[in-house]
Amino acid sequence: MFDGLIDGYTQSILIFAGINVIAAYSFFAPFKTGQVSIGQAGFMAVGAYASATLTQKFGIPFLIGLPVGALIAGVVGVVVGFPALRIKGIYLLLLTLGFSEIIQVVVLSWDYVGGAQGLRNIPFNAHTLDYVIVVIIVTITFFGRLERSSLGRAMDSIHQDETAAEVMGIDVVRLKLLAFGVGAMIAGLAGALYAHQATYIDSTTFNVMMSVEILTFVVVGGGSTFWGPAVGAAGLSLLPELLRSLRDWLELLPVEWTSFFPMNRIYDFLYRFLDFENAKRLIVYGIILIVMMIVRPDGLLTRDSVPHWRGARRKAMHA
Amino acid sequence: MIYQQLVNGLMLGASYALVAIGYTLIFGVLNLLYFAQGEVFMVGAFVGLYLVVGAGANIYGAILGAMVICGALGAVAVFVAVRPVAKDRPLAPLISTIGLTIILQNLAVYIFGGQQMAFPETMEQRLYRLGPVTVGSAQLFILTVAIALMVLLWLFIARTKLGRAIRATAENHETAALLGVDVDRVVLITFIIGSGIAGVAGVLDGIKNSNISPFMGLGAAVKGLIVMLLGGLGNVPGAMVAGLLLGMIEILSAAYIGTAERDLFSFLILILILLWRPTGLFGTRTVEQG
Amino acid sequence: MLEAMTRSACLSIEGLTKRFGGFFALNDLRMEVVKGDIHALIGPNGAGKTTFFNLLTGVFRPDAGRIVFEGQLMDDARPFRRTVKGIARTFQNIRLFPHLTVLQTVMIGAHCRSFPSVWKALGAAVLQPPFGEAEEERNMRGHALELLEFFGLADMRDLKASDLAYGDQRRLEMARALATGPRLLLLDEPAAGMNPHETQELDNIITGIRDRGVTIILVEHDMRLVMGISDRITVLNFGTRIADGEPQEIQRDLRVIEAYLGEDVLL
């Protein structure tokens, strides 16, 4: 749809940023019931490999392979969700980590899906950006609706005090499983989209660091409102590109401004630092994470910072 | 043949144990998963490399240097990523240590490039025969240093006043403070010790594998976590034993089943322990962490 | 005797036993709660009263004995099912949801009535109108507001639960429990930390709840409240029932007085 308007490179950036947004919501879903998972990359892998295999080896069209991959990931999510019910905190972190690692090992030793060589020549889809946008819109709408609903409230209550919620009649087990499964399904969707955009995946693609980054998207963006994950994911994904553009703007500064000390030193430093190189950008990324946690540990968007139009509306209706 | 594998297993296990010690110490006193421990391990290896290649140090100097610099890194971590961050939001300190992880890893990539680098020979290769086993001097050195370090640490924690202070803080911050312990200082020291030991482990790993890479931290981090759980959260001797155990299990399963499966075993063990005995093989703490 | 035949049992407890290791928290308890009564459970600290509530709500499983509620055997493993069946409780140390508003807290209680099935709840979440409220949500909110009015918390409906004064938090706990639409309400030391004025208000609230058709089991240490409000009292000591009867009988019962000897309690 955007082929005329946006060039291929920018499309690619937007697609990967969009996939990050979707992945962020895959973390957000179980998080809403208090389950912190660093295994979402594992579910992404399940969705990616399922969808890629279906399209590549069975010639199934992308539009079917994608949701099937997501569904399979969702089922795996519910399966993993059962043992996850009984454990919390660091133990849950380790369980989800273990799951993600096991998936990696399985993929590595399963030659049918490429083994150590990985899965190549996954059919590329020219409309991926469109699909990504659609999925994002649907996802955000869903979570927005969830936040305003009794189900969303029930999930929040589980997050805040699981035992009290149970005693108040909330079916904690089913809701946690639902949240976990939905999260896995969304991750599967993100993974499948990734596979068809990158056209190559292997056992190292969906690793721990990816799960960890997804976690940071949500915490930085704000885990208590439904906009937080999108803001965090979009912001942090596009940050490297922003830094790169910053460098381009540096070049536009008039020479006179920067030819004397200390401006010339600062200019040189910034110019070299805002370089393309992945490593430097990631260092900035890491610094931003630390600074964010010191300055605003609740994330960019919190319940109080987002105007409660719902509350205002209620007051109006009640009056 | 099996004895050879056991030696390999012990070396691998010692590496895991040393990294896990830092994890479990820090978790014990702060209830924090210090994610950057793997990267500290990596930094140690590179410091060792630099000291040997760039500064012409011998292996002892390299180890000492790595220990000191990584210990200092631990202190920096406390001041930069731990103290300023609110503790009442459990995820915030985790994220800041993740930030530190990313910084350290990419700093290494930036300085050294993303490729593996050779770790130079630092000692005469001689073979020693100990009963049924033949051990190279490098292997003997690694095992000796590792075990010596673990014994020293165990003595330190069990016998010294500072060790008692650490144990008290791990039990309960308030009680420890009432007993006159400077909790902040104890936390700092714990980080320094844990990081220093991880640094040494990095150098030892470099000697063992003859090469290092900026990405060696992540694998060590994950295995270290498994060992920490296996030994019981906060249980330092537990981590030591569990590390050696896991190393041996991995080597034996690699030898008799297959190399790809060896990691699988470790993760399955992780899952089993989580579901059956989350307090670990030796743990006495039941951590109800939200 | 005619009276006994026309008043039905809401709750029947037989032989209820709970052990922790070698220690009997509750030993062979027999008790009957009549529908519409305010039934108090008293006893010195550690007598097993909170354990009893935990057994009733399904948080603990009994080692022996039966719980029969409205003629049905209560053996659900999951506490939430018992709440759906009509048993609700408050907690001794208040367990509110720290970041939810007062109104949202009470609406949580109503969730299980409006949405007995997870799928129904999901459907309602997805299908709600984009602006404004769905009908079910409106009903829940109306019901919740009515309860808040009853408890005098309506003005604070948008405040966070954790920002409330202690007395208000206690009342919020009760409102939340009442929102689940119970027929049996377990109140765990609702008067703890209250001054005489607040306790008098509590008296009115509890009788008001009873008048709405809810049977109440009250665990309390405040004897003036207990004696003044209860229809029947069961006394526990060391997990065993030592007396059961109307307030006047209990006040005169020597075993009860003996049990409380040394405790700072005025019977």
Description:
The complex is a heterotrimer of chains A (319), B (290) and C (267). Helix content of chain A is 72%, strand content 0%. Chain A is built from 13 helices and no strands. Chain A has helices at residues 8-32, 40-57, 62-84, 89-109, 128-147, 150-160, 162-167, 172-198, 208-221, 228-252, 263-273, 278-295, 309-318. Residues 308-319 of chain A have low confidence and may be disordered. Chain B has 290 residues and is mainly alpha-helical. Helix content of chain B is 74%, strand content 4%. Chain B has helices at residues 2-30, 37-53, 59-82, 91-112, 137-159, 161-171, 173-178, 183-209, 216-231, 236-256, 259-276; strands spanning 117-118, 127-130, 133-136, 211-212. Chain B has a two-stranded antiparallel sheet with strand order 1-4. The longest helix of chain B has 29 residues, at 2-30. Chain B is globular, with a radius of gyration of 18 Å. Chain C folds into 2 domains: 1-86 and 182-267, 3-Layer(aba) Sandwich (Rossmann fold); 98-179, no CATH class. Chain C is built from 11 helices and 10 strands. The longest helix of chain C has 17 residues, at 135-151. Chain C is globular and about 65 Å long.
Helix segment tally of chain B: 11
> What is the average of the pLDDT values of chain A?
85
H/E element order of chain B: HHHHEEEHHHHEHHH
- Strand line-up across the major sheet of chain B: 1-4
**DSSP E strands of chain B, number:** 4
User: Mean pLDDT of chain B, nearest integer?
Assistant: 87
Largest interface: A-B, 47 and 50 residues
Q: Catalogue the unreliable spans of chain A.
A: 308-319
Query: Which range does the strand content of chain B fall in?
Result: under 5%
User: What is the molecular shape of chain B?
Assistant: globular
Brief write-up:
With 319 residues, chain A is an all-alpha fold. Chain A is 72% helix and 0% strand.
Descriptors:
A: 319 residues; C: 267 residues; alpha/beta; Rossmann fold; 6-stranded mixed sheet; 4-stranded antiparallel sheet; 10 strands
Strand and helix layout:
The complex is a heterotrimer of chains A (319), B (290) and C (267).
Chain A: H1 8-32, H2 40-57, H3 62-84, H4 89-109, H5 128-147, H6 150-160, H7 162-167, H8 172-198, H9 208-221, H10 228-252, H11 263-273, H12 278-295, H13 309-318
Chain B: H1 2-30, H2 37-53, H3 59-82, H4 91-112, E1 117-118, E2 127-130, E3 133-136, H5 137-159, H6 161-171, H7 173-178, H8 183-209, E4 211-212, H9 216-231, H10 236-256, H11 259-276
Chain C: H1 2-6, E1 9-20, E2 23-34, E3 38-42, H2 49-57, E4 64-69, E5 72-73, H3 79-85, E6 87-89, H4 102-114, H5 118-127, H6 135-151, H7 166-179, E7 184-188, H8 196-211, E8 215-219, H9 223-229, E9 232-237, E10 240-245, H10 247-252, H11 254-259
Parallel strand pairs in C: 3-8, 3-9, 6-7, 7-8
Antiparallel strand pairs in C: 1-2, 1-4, 4-5, 9-10
Helix pairs in contact in C: 4-6, 4-7, 6-7
